[in-house]
Amino acid sequence: MAGQGDETQPRFSPGVSEAATPTPTPATVPEGPVYAEPVDPWATAEAAAIAAGGQPGGYQPHPDPQGTWTVPGATEPTVEKRSRRRLALIIGGAVAGVTVIATAAAAFLLWPKFPALDYHALREVKQITPKIPFTSTFMDTEVYGERAFFAGVTDTGTLHTLAAETGSGDVLWENDNAGTAYSWKAMYAREKVLVLVSGVDPTTSRSRVVALSSEDGRLVWDKQLGSSDEIHLAADTVLWVDREAKKLTGLGMSDGTVEWSVDDPDATSVQLVTGIDDLTGPAGATGRPFTPAGGDKQRFVQIDSDRTVTVRDVHTGDVLQKRAEVASTGDKVAAHDGRLYVVEPGTTKRVFQYDLARFAETQPVTLYTAGDSEDVDQLTPCGKLVCFVVSTGYDGKADVVRAAGGEGAWDKPVAGVEELVAVGSNGLLAVGDEGTTLLVGGKEAWYRLGVTVRLDARNVLTFSGGLTSSVDDRELSGTHLGEESVNLGVLAEVRSGTCSWNTSTIACANEKGYVLHSFAD
Questions:
Q1: pLDDT of 85 above 80
Q2: Is residue 63 domain-resident?
Q3: Which of 73, 251, 268, 462 could form a disulfide with 452 if both were Cys (CB 3.0 to 4.6 A apart)?
Q4: Does the residue 25 lie in any domain?
Q5: Residue 159 lies in a domain
Q6: What's the confidence (pLDDT) of residue 112?
Q7: Contact of 459 with 114, CB cutoff 8 Å
């Protein structure tokens, strides 16, 4: 088992022992700034920044079947990741599932606040044909509450966007106000704006971040980013790591104005601190919440290459806590529910837990110490605990999912895990090459072929195959944890990798436009 291969090492009990050496030894500290791939705070994922032309760290709305997004200038991992094989599409019948949990255990899953959704067979709400035809270069959808947003690039390179009501499919607005760019990469919806991210133009080494009003589609703000800059989207604030100007800046989401700015000579990386409510609403395939909780007291951690970590207020930039010798910019970290989790780099690979409220005065707790041949990945908040994958070997056959950090810690062998997505306080989706395993309290509830995503803290939606940009069919099923799944029918001829959803409607791009389907009342 992980962490037990060397009998000469001191043993640590998850959640109770302090680190034998609270700060990593100097040999493990990388020299100079390192910009690694953003670590997904949900699975991932989906923490860190929208790199110029990339994705917001920690968030991947619609998985790209051709590869992952990286931060420009990032150093590639020294250990090659296992390749994700395309998930098998099940032809005919309902989405396959294997239930292995007893009825008594299933009753434990029920939670009055999140009852079973009133699932029904898929009903087409509306086919939406944009006024201007778009190409397959870039297409995306976002659902925020009861509003769906759609985007596609025309043959002139212009980004065409529109918004519609999810219940009726009525188009609220449609325009080309985002303008043109060398390429377009991502779209993210917030309460007041729709944020659109371009790729880096190789002739200028610049990218664009554009915000349109969610109400009427007018252009609200437009920012130029350097090739190494990052942005991070909180609920109502944009954190901009401006590496050219050496500034860390907070922009108002609704108008793009500078709310605060501090000097940042050390090439910071940033991690938003998520909360329990971020694990209870609709989320993408890597766990990115479509409607992040936010709040007046949202925090983030600023990580410098000299291993100093600073806790700041999202809305003011004020320093709340600070500590040296914690983590560097390329380390695997997650910040959730008042705690910071750090995977120690180098050969030791301990998982540390820090209390952000008493960051400066308390010692970290060692949650896990990896064995000599083990690696720790997919650091993911899961209720009051943190979950991660311990791997031994390249093929993933010996993967173990662990939950640590307090009462109810557990471990469970699950082969080939590629993503971890929390479902409420004690559910966890372990997504692999060909299917998804639901774990509840460390016990396997079921395994299903395809990709399963979160609708709320007790309801999930399963696609019968991988999520891709190609036009294809996907069977859907809805499940309230602890109950039998409901076959919803076939989502026909859609680009499943563009789909997004709330608890009743799914929006997707198709061959020529977009389509809305209802799956619950």
A1: no
A2: yes
A3: 462
A4: no
A5: yes
A6: 59
A7: yes
Q: Give the domain range for residue 388.
A: 32-520
Summarize pLDDT for 357-369 with one digit per residue, the tens. Answer: 999 999 999 999 9
The helix/strand/coil state of 409 is coil
For residue 505, which amino acid is it? T
| Least confident among 36-45, 429-438, 451-460 | 36-45
Count of other CB atoms within 10 angstroms of residue 134: 21
Rounded distance between C-alpha atoms, residue 65 and residue 379, angstroms: 22
DSSP 321-389: EEESSS--TTSEEEEETTEEEEEPPSSS-EEEEEEGGGTTTSPPEEEEE--TTEEEEEEEEETTEEEEE
- Mean pLDDT over each residue of the chain, to the nearest integer: 82
How far apart (Å, rounded) are the C-alpha atoms in residues 83 and 416? 10
Distance CA 408, CA 196 (A): 41
- Structurally, how many domains does the chain consist of? 1
Give yes or no for residue 19 having a pLDDT over 80: no
**352 confidence band (pLDDT: 50, 70, 90):** very high
What CATH number corresponds to the domain at position 60? 2.130.10
Distance between CA atoms of 379 and 385, rounded to whole angstroms? 11
Burial class (CB in 10 A: 0-12, 13-18, 19+), 366: buried
Burial class of residue 347 in the structure, from the number of CB atoms within 10 Å of its CB (0-12 exposed, 13-18 middle, 19+ buried): exposed
Residue 8 lies in a domain: no
Reported in sequence order, the residue ranges of 166-298 that DSSP labels E, i.e. its strands, are 171-175, 184-189, 193-198, 206-213, 219-226, 230-233, 237-242, 247-252, 258-263, 269-272
Residues 6+ apart with CB under 8 A from 58: 38, 39, 40, 41, 42, 44, 45, 46, 47, 48, 271, 272, 288
Report the length, in residues, of the chain: 521
Q: What CA–CA distance (Å, rounded) separates 448 from 452?
A: 8
pLDDT of residue 378: 95
Rounded-to-integer distance, Cα 20 and Cα 207, Å: 45
Measured CA to CA, the distance from residue 421 to residue 283 in angstroms comes to 9
